[in-house]
Please model this.
Amino acid sequence: MDMRTRVGTALKQAMKAKDAERLSTLRLINAAIKDRDIALRGTEDEAAGCGDTDVLAILGRMVKQRHESARAYEEGGRLELAEKELEEIKVIEDFLPKQLNENESAAAVDAAISEVGAASIRDMGKVMGILKGKYTGQMDFGKVGPLVKERLG
Model:
């Protein structure tokens, strides 16, 4: 089942269960997917629409945004809003594949470096391209970037 169908099915289930918090988050996910579809209009990707990799990227951004918001709310003493952001993260993460741990990420970086034949920092873009192609939604590329730089430097 593709990601769009999974989100739609979960949305219907949340409506039937009258789970207002989950329903709200699922509607946000659905809206973000539709926004991406609209952004693709007029391009050669329009017919295909928003694919699973696009949806995974959207979900990853949504989780990152909510982590940042929760941190800001906690610093501002707005714990109830921080709690709401963390609850939304749990709903979004239901659709993301299992995150790679540090050892798995390091192994993936090493494999990508050897696959590309990277020898210097100038090859970092190629390595990151391979990683994004294979592990979108499974690793935090903000944390992996310095690791790639360290391995190539």
About this structure: The mean pLDDT is 89. The two ends are 41 Å apart (CA to CA). The chain has seven helices and no strands.
